[in-house]
């Protein structure tokens, strides 16, 4: 931990908070946790390379990452929470996201206001915003906005469809197992099909 005009920072681990110069109230525990942070504030990083890329001043603050490489490429995203192996790993400037589970929201880059709870939930979402996925692989192929899935594999067929709601195990299948591209669909129940 090196510092010049910082305050209330805690770093534990090789290269943890290694570049901090002006930021304050940061906690980094683990190898390279918050390593590139220079002037960010109020971040918590616990785990190997957690919040590794965080660096800017007024943005990139108020993030929490617990787990291997959680939020590791985040540079300017704020108000994100990542708990689990590789959760929100690719996030750079997306804000107000919550990812709990292995690979939850792992490829999210710029999407904001997403909630993913469960292994691989919203896994390939890159820029989609305001999605909620609760369950194993829920909405894992989604790349669009304003979708809700509750249940294991719910909404997994959804790719670019938006405003859809899926409730139940495997809810949101399509009749030919193709990708869902439609909008404002509602599927409730076990293996319920929708028209793509």
Task: For this entry, give a set of tags.
196 residues, eleven-stranded parallel sheet, two-stranded parallel sheet
Low-confidence stretches: none
Gross geometry: elongated
The count of β-strands is 13
Helical coverage, percent range: under 10%
How many helices?
0
Secondary structure class reads: mainly beta
Mean pLDDT: 91
Order of helices and strands: EEEEEEEEEEEEE
Strand order of the largest sheet: 1-2-3-4-5-6-7-8-9-10-12
Largest sheet: 11 strands, parallel
Strand content: 15-25%
Q: CA-to-CA gap between the ends? A: 54 Å
Radius of gyration: 18 Å
Structure in words:
The structure is a single chain. With 196 residues, the protein is mostly beta strands. 0% of the residues lie in helices and 19% in strands. The protein contains no helices and 13 strands. The strands form 2 sheets. Strands 1-2-3-4-5-6-7-8-9-10-12 form an 11-stranded parallel sheet, with no helix packed on it. It has a two-stranded parallel ribbon with strand order 11-13. The chain is elongated. The chain starts with 9 loop residues before the first strand and ends with a strand.
Quick structural overview:
The protein is mainly beta and 196 residues long. 0% of the residues lie in helices and 19% in strands. The protein has strands at residues 10-12, 27-29, 44-46, 64-66, 81-83, 98-100, 115-117, 132-134, 148-150, 165-167, 173-174, 186-188, 193-194.
């Amino acid at each position: 931990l090196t510092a010049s005009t910082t305050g209330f920072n805690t770093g534990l681990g090789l290269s943890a908070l290694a570049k901090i110069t002006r930021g304050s109230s940061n906690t980094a525990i683990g190898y390279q946790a918050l390593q590139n942070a220079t002037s960010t504030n109020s971040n918590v990083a616990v785990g190997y390379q957690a919040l590794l890329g965080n660096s800017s001043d007024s943005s990139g603050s108020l993030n929490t990452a617990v787990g291997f490489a959680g939020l590791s490429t985040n540079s300017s995203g704020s108000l994100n929470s990542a708990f689990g192996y590789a959760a929100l790993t690719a996030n750079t400037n997306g804000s107000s996201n919550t990812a709990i589970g292995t690979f939850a929201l792992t490829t999210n880059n710029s999407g904001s206001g997403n909630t993913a709870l469960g292994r691989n939930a919203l896994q390939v979402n890159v820029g989609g915003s305001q999605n909620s996925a609760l369950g194993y692989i829920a909405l894992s192929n989604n790349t669009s906005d304003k979708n809700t899935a509750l249940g294991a594999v719910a909404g997994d067929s959804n790719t670019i469809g938006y405003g859809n709601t899926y409730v139940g195990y495997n809810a949101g299948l399509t009749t030919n197992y193709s990708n869902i591209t439609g909008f404002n669909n509602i599927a409730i129940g076990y293996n319920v099909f929708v028209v793509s």
